[in-house]
Amino acid sequence: MKTVYQLCFWILIVLTGCQEKTLKKHQSESKQSLMAEKEITKETDAPMKAEFLDSLRIREYFEDSTRIGCKGRSKIVVALYDFKDTTYIGINFYSKRNKSWKLRNKYRFDFDLMNSMQPVLTDLNGDGLKDIHLRSMEAVIGANQMRRLFVYSVKGDSLVHLVNSHDYPNVAYNPSLKCLECHKYYSASNQAFGRIQGDSIIDFAYIENRADASYVFTVDQGQPTLIYVDSSELSDPYARFKNYKPLVRYRYNPSEYTFEETEQFDVGGTAVSYQKWKERLEI
Questions:
Q1: Alpha-carbon distance 78 to 216, whole Å?
Q2: In the predicted model, what is the mean pLDDT of residues 41-68?
């Protein structure tokens, strides 16, 4: 009989522990959802906010104030959410002034993917400060990953959206040339090198990798000029180069270079209605 009582006692302990863990998980999810609600509807009129929340559901939420821009003085909040029949990414960027966070930039974009926004913090312009890029759309060819790039501006203390960045698949910072590079796959591949000017990426060179050779071009004010053709063993329809003059191939898998020295984050969230969040809060 004593053994039975002991067994019941330990079962009760385990069940209590599971309930506590479940409650903590619900509290964490609810807190995250409320934070997302606050950020998405910031500076929205009260009547519009009420209507907005009725049809809003959060899918993912990401926040950082220790890596982005000036560490400890910059903060970014990103939410992936559904509103009615459309999915959006909302981005708020803040700067700390007089010990409080001031909104500096606010961006909203349609999101056409079914999977995660996959935020990545990395230096995109060689200034030693962390910028951010996010998945933006699905390319026709799966190997081409399209992303939106946002660069922290020290001068403006703001987050600048590179407006044509989603045209640059598989983008990475090239420390040798101090520029951005992208690699676009089709039946062969094309690699472009560009520098950030204002809110855009401007090409200054590109390589067309074909079956017979690699064709190297320079670009001046949008006009390409073929400077040479390389049909040596360096040439390959899918080769990726870290320099174009002369051609220098990467010695390792380009995908390793693409995300070298970056910080990729798992983002939380779930696709449930705010009524469900309210119900969880009341439990």
A1: 39
A2: 70
Q: How far apart are the first and last CA of the chain?
A: 36
Long-range contacts of 49-56 (CB under 8 A, 24+ apart): 52/83, 53/274, 54/274, 55/83, 55/84, 56/81, 56/82, 56/83, 56/274
Please state, for a pLDDT cut of 90, what percent of the chain lies above it: 43
243-265, pLDDT tens digit by residue? Answer: 999 898 887 544 444 433 334 44
H helices present in the chain, as ranges:
2-40, 46-54, 254-258, 274-282
The residue written with tokens 């929205």 in the block is 44
Alpha helices in 41-137 (DSSP H): 46-54
Distances from the Cα of 144 to the Cαs of 42, 121, 170, 268, in angstroms?
A: 34, 20, 6, 25
Compare 75 and 277 and report the one with higher pLDDT: 75
pTM: 0.74
Q: Is 18 left (phi over 0), alpha (psi -120 to 50) or beta?
A: alpha
Q: How many residues does the chain have?
A: 283
CB atoms near residue 78 (< 10 Å) = 24
pLDDT digits (tens, 9 = 90+) for 157-204: 999 999 999 889 989 999 999 999 999 988 889 999 999 999 999 999
**Residue 70 to residue 73: CA distance in whole angstroms:** 5
The DSSP letter of residue 232 is: S
